[in-house]
Design brief:
129 residues; mainly alpha
């Protein structure tokens, strides 16, 4: 029964995250040959995951289901590796190889850096509070 509840938490969080991502993409200006919206979504999501990881680490009383719903579900649905790869391929096909490589290879590296920055910033805020 626990696995079912955890799965529902991830599924509901994922649906909300995917809907939020779609709304951000829908309402953002489109720039030709660029995937800045996807880049922003993924870097924001990575930072937010870092913040939540640190909050959950510092405040271990949060339930595992809440953690799953917010990280794997909500932020997992909000960020998107697949869309990012499709956009990288499209950029490469348009002859924009540098942008394609930055998006396809650089963003995952930047994502780790931004996640660590989120953790560090949150740790400092929690220590002060």
């Amino acid at each position: 029964m626990r696995a079912l509840r955890d799965s529902l938490a991830v599924g509901i969080g994922g649906a909300v995250g995917a809907l939020l991502r779609y709304l951000v993409e829908l309402t953002s200006p489109k720039l030709p040959g660029a995937a800045f919206v996807t880049l922003g979504i993924n870097l924001f999501g990575a930072f937010a995951i870092g913040v939540l990881m640190e909050i959950f680490f510092q405040r271990s009383h949060a339930s595992g289901r809440i953690r799953l719903a917010l990280t794997t579900g909500l932020l997992g649905g909000f960020t998107t590796f697949g869309t990012m790869m499709v956009q990288a391929v499209e950029l490469a096909r348009e002859g924009l190889l540098a942008q394609a490589l930055l998006l396809g290879a650089g963003v995952p590296v930047l994502g780790v850096v931004v996640t660590l920055a989120g953790q560090s910033a949150t740790r400092r805020l929690l220590v002060r509070g």
